[in-house]
Design a protein that fits this description.
Layout: E1 2-5, E2 24-30, E3 47-52, E4 79-80, E5 120-127, E6 132-138, E7 189-195, E8 197-201, E9 206-217, E10 220-230, E11 235-246, E12 249-259, E13 264-275, H1 301-308, E14 348-359, E15 362-371, E16 380-393, E17 396-402, E18 405-408, E19 412-415, E20 419-423, E21 432-437, H2 438-441, E22 443-448, E23 450-454, E24 458-466, H3 468-472, E25 495-504, E26 509-517, H4 525-528, E27 529-539, E28 546-559, E29 565-577, E30 581-582, E31 588-602, E32 617-637, E33 659-673, E34 678-693, E35 702-714, E36 729-740, E37 743-752, E38 757-768, E39 772-779, E40 784-791, E41 808-812, E42 815-816
Amino acid sequence: MFLFALPPQPPPISVIENVTPRRTTPFWVAETTGTSTTKSPSTIPSVIEFYYSDPKKITPPPASELLPPQAAQDLGQPISVQTPREEVPTEPVFPNRSLTAIAPQEVYGLSKNRDRLHFKQRLITQTREGEVQEFIIRSDDAKNPNQENSGAPTNSDATPPPAAPTDLAKPASPTVNPVNTTKSEKTPEVVELVSDQQEYEANQQIVTATGKVVMRFSNGVLLADRLRINLPDRFAVAEGNVVLTRGDQTLQGERFEYFFVQDKGVIYNANGEIYQPTTGRDLAPALPTDPGGNIISNQTLNERLSANQPLQQVTPNQGLGISVGTSFNLNQFGTAGSSGPRGGQVNRLRFQAQRVDFDSAGWNASKVRITNDPFSPPELEVQAENATYQNVGPQVDEVKLSGSQVVLDQQTSLPFQDRLTIDRRDRQPGVLSFGYDGQDRGGLFVQSGFTVVDTKVARFQIKPQYLIQKALFPDAFPTSNQSDSTVCVVCPAVFGLITDLDVNFSDRTKLINTLNFSNLNLDQIDNSLRAKLALQNKIGDNDHPYDLRVEYNYRERLFNGSLGFQTVNSSFGAVLLSPYITFNDPSLALSYQASIQDIQADTDQTNLLSPNRDNNLVTLMRYQGAASLSKSFLLWAGDALPPTPDQGLRYTPFTVVPYIQLITGLTGVTSFYSDGSSQPSLTGNIGFQGQFGHFSEPYLDYTGFNLSYQQAIRGDASPFLFDRFVDTQVLTWGLTQQVYGPVRVGVQSSYSIDANKEISTDYFLEYSRRTYNLQLRYNPQLQVGSINLRISDFNWSGNPGSFEGTDIHPVLQGVTR
């Protein structure tokens, strides 16, 4: 093996700016049997380029008297670079025309190339003390086809060109031009290598780097104590504290093997992380700034309190590399209308494995353990013989498991599913969930779901249901049972079904279709089917867009306070929802909405009904506008405990901050109808909410509360029943309390002073742990409930609502929420 040193022609322009001038000498690596000569150490260049190619496929360069024979020994001993650091050139150095050239003026980046097998890579090595070496790593298919079936160059083929200039800032005009690269030639990927010390073994063509090694390649960064790169085999081996970061995924291990061209490798005794950033809701809530929106809420009190606590950034102990904290896209202290806690949750999955084989698409691991707990030993982990991880969509990752089980608190083992989906999109949690819907489904039911189609564009889900209580006690809720004769253990009347279709035409446009069958008795489909079809378009800033929806609803079920359940037979129209608008004062927020809809619903206005009729339905156009302004005042705030497993994160995935907050709000709504009637209203709201304790001690270390009063002024009444505003004075209160350990109980209630009637009361019992949560909820007024097992950040980031799967939407102040 010999290495030919060919001093270059002067480049036509300065290719290295603001860098101390130095000599640049490109080298051609080839096999030959010629004699060697010794070169003075003073002539060893400080910048070297190596171009590797198969000797059998290289066309011999033309003989020239300017190129005398030279040998590999001219390089002297293996290079050990320990000189003061200089900047790495950001542009390529042009080689002699007899060498394979890099296209002039090409910009090299770290972007991933999908056609790796027909690609070449450019390796730049540099010690922290300064010197730079460059290598071209080619796949066999990336070589010049014109060089096929050509012999290797010999010593007699080389003659020296004129000496290279010493001042690169003012280069002399070249005597020859660089080889013109065809347009089809692909730009090399750049692989950068930085370490404390580097050596190049010329005979074996091996680069060895030691001491705080950093290698940047493709879409990843590798850290290690030692690294060896075999140039002929395009192969790298790293040892000692190996850390590989690819995007937001981190892999660690004792030994790392990597093939450059194939972009694949192996890590032994590996552990790592899978990052799961969450996204906000695709469908923005109506009037999120209205403090009165918690009269009927999908969230428990402690969930709303955690969302509104003062902003805290929490990170676990150093070395875990996992971010646990509370962060909001709303104002600093939140409002009562805030959506669920988006921050303050464990946002990464950790895993350990004996061996991990990875490539650009994902990884495969053996003897693997996966957990969402940032601490060890983990509260909850999934153990499997084998696991395969791959990205299946922009916001969806998939982990396929074999021989898997769930281990709780290192004691209890339960069988686990063989497919784990990590989905950052909105989705209902739970593989198997129980629900309670007295009006439509006769009480208790069980539900499961599976995805039929799941692509970047479309997702279609089916959720079959079995109505347990209706099958066993058909008379418990007469409104859900047509007759006793149609109800049995396996007949269609005791099965329900929900289908969800989402089609993403673009980042801004989305189609949503939902079909909800309360039973599968096709003879009663007019009374069992509820449907929704909506085209959603986001307008304006992507971070805070306006939400324009054109939608059709069939038999939409609404709950209008003391008037109870109402069904809108059909509606079609457009709704525009504003984003959450904040001002210079982060505690001041505004939201508004406008709509125009053609509605068919029940009325009690006899002047709108014909004398001969089968029902009380009437069809009218409704034009509605609403706006809500809220202001919150932080009266007091304590400090969170340190985010350790025995303090701040003992029973919860986020640290609890004690605080007391004053909430105020003003909401105005005006509705006009095509019969000439209208319903204007103005509502004021004032209240307190807060929490005490840290939810860390064994008992009575957490108390959450809220208390608010709502007073409204209303003009004429709506001709419809579903949006008639009748509860002008409402008192809302809630309390949640830690009983012992991870057990909390709570109640949230709203009372109509006008009707002297309880509007809604929601009871819940919760078993809360850092990594998982079991919650039981029941609302006797709405006749709905739920049992939910939530595993933090495995499949979802939101909170399970008691109305999920029931299509119940509350109507407050005449506005459907």
